[in-house]
Amino acid sequence: MTIFKVLGENGQAYHGGSGKWSLPTADGPGEWMPGIEGDLVPCVNGYHLCRESDLVNWLGPTLYEAEYRGEMVEDDDKIVVREARLLRKLDTWNERTARLFACDCAERAVHLANDKRCVEAITVARRYANGEATSEELAAARHATLAAARDSAGDSAWAAAWDSAWAAALGGAWAAAWAAAWAAARDAAGAAQNKRLIALIGKE
Q: Three-state SS across 144-162?
């Protein structure tokens, strides 16, 4: 089973918690983090890691493959362990793949909205990920989805399509990926999104 850890830049804790992780180097994995004392309690005490099926819920700036040893407690969307270390940084999670994943998520929901502005926003975001569109074009596409949302305010079924298209065109790639995944999940199965994410980072 492949285990992941999502962190901020330079190994800083990202989704809650504090402190900094020991990072892998060219010579090998990071150091084992200090052992956790006391009972392991999700969201309270322990090192929190992701299984493949959890990863789509915990996107962030950097992604590492990790391992643990000793006691482990399973939770709905994570595992909590007493000892852990980072094995390697997954450089396949980057600005381009994060943006492409956002587009993939948005495309799973865009059929709910019969509005070419949403489709165009995803197209522009995908072109931007591939270096074929400017940041100004991306911003224009994002603003167009907001206009589409205003035109059909109150239609909850179409809101997922607009939200995900808007998210795909966000300025920050990893933030776009996280937001689009959550927006598209109103209509698209999370398992399918997660499968695409795993394929993008080359861990399938």
A: HHHHHHHHCCCCHHHHHHH
Reduce the DSSP state of residue 193 to 3 states and report it. Answer: helix
Per-residue pLDDT at 20 exceeds 80:
yes
Q: What is the largest CA-CA distance in the chain?
A: 56
Read off the pLDDT of each residue in 28-33 and give the average, rounded to a whole number: 98
Q: Say if residue 181 is in the same domain as residue 195.
A: yes
Domain with 141, as residue range(s), is: 95-200
With CA atoms as reference, report the closest residue to 105 among 172, 190, 174: 190
For residue 145, count other CB atoms closer than 10 A to its CB: 26
Please tell me the distance from the alpha carbon of residue 149 to that of residue 151, in angstroms, as a whole number.
Answer: 5
Same domain, 47 and 100: no
Q: Are residues 120 and 185 in the same domain?
A: yes
How many domains does the structure of the chain reveal? 2
Phi, psi angles (nearest 5°) of residue 59: -70, 150
Q: Which amino acid, residue 115? A: D
Residues 196 and 99 reside in one and the same domain: yes
Q: Residue 47 belongs to what H/E stretch?
A: strand 47-51
Q: What is the pLDDT of residues 146-197, one digit of tens each?
A: 777 676 655 555 566 667 777 787 777 777 787 777 666 554 456 777 788 8
